[in-house]
């Protein structure tokens, strides 16, 4: 073997060893978009990877046990075919996506819940689904007329405007120092009571203030009351209201008290209308007349300790029906005791009383009890 062969063999061995070592080296991983916390809109938000949109995923689980009406006779406990007790399981899914843009805030919000009551199949409700673009709001959300809708659980309907959700197209102007005003076009079919057809949406406006001491709101609405009788005239109903909430930190850190009053003429849904069973307008003797009503309400929450609290709500309302139809009065009281051992988890018991008095008929007292376990996250 000559020197040339030795050198060639050594070079080949070195090249093979170098190639083996290179193959053993780790390969650099592909870049990864890690989830980042977004603190621009409060706790719980994170950036959707690869975007400047912040998302919060939340929800709620609720388990209720009801002791149904055990008030006056013909209640749920007297009738063999009625359920004296019943249950409800409900699950909420909430998504809140927000992006700061040159046009202001762009927000998309979804709140959907699934409900299973005793002896019934699961029902799905799209509670809220709206888009905010700067000062504009489009979609399904709480009416801009509604203000105070209770602190207690309130399975029995109180006498105040609490439509839940409706379709809106609204503009909100902020004037600084917590003062704002909103003009909202809302789907009037959600507010129809005893009327049919629909041509014009409801027009709703409010003036609101939110400051350290609490909040207050003045609100008004115009509503079309249209009957099926072709001889009847369409009436333009209206409603007005006012509410104020005072924070009471001098008593306990999260204590508050609220007062509210509303009046409606031809728009009874805006004042609570005794479970919304009495028509906005009535046609008789060749003329159309509107139903009028008013209510007053109050609610307070007190924290006995950081974990134990009580909420009490009360309301009273009166409906004046035209053409000698029986007037209706209703008042409600609800109170509870709630234990919150950890943030977002509550165990609560509530007792509710309702009196409905239709003129000329015996008044009806209803009493209901309930127990709730709820986890919000």
TrEMBL record:
Keyword flag Transport: yes
InterPro entries with a match to the protein in the record: Porin_alphabac (IPR003684)
Membrane topology designation: Multi-pass membrane protein
SUPFAM superfamilies: Porins (SSF56935)
Location(s) in or outside the cell: Cell outer membrane
Keywords: Cell outer membrane, Ion transport, Membrane, Porin, Signal, Transmembrane, Transmembrane beta strand, Transport
Pfam families: Porin_2
Signal peptide bounds: 1-22
Main location: membrane
Family from the record: Belongs to the alphaproteobacteria porin family.
UniProt remark on domains: Consists of 16-stranded beta-barrel sheets, with large surface-exposed loops, that form a transmembrane pore at the center of each barrel. The pore is partially ocluded by a peptide loop that folds into the pore lumen.
Role summary: Forms passive diffusion pores that allow small molecular weight hydrophilic materials across the outer membrane.
Name used for this protein in its record: Porin
Organism: Pannonibacter anstelovis
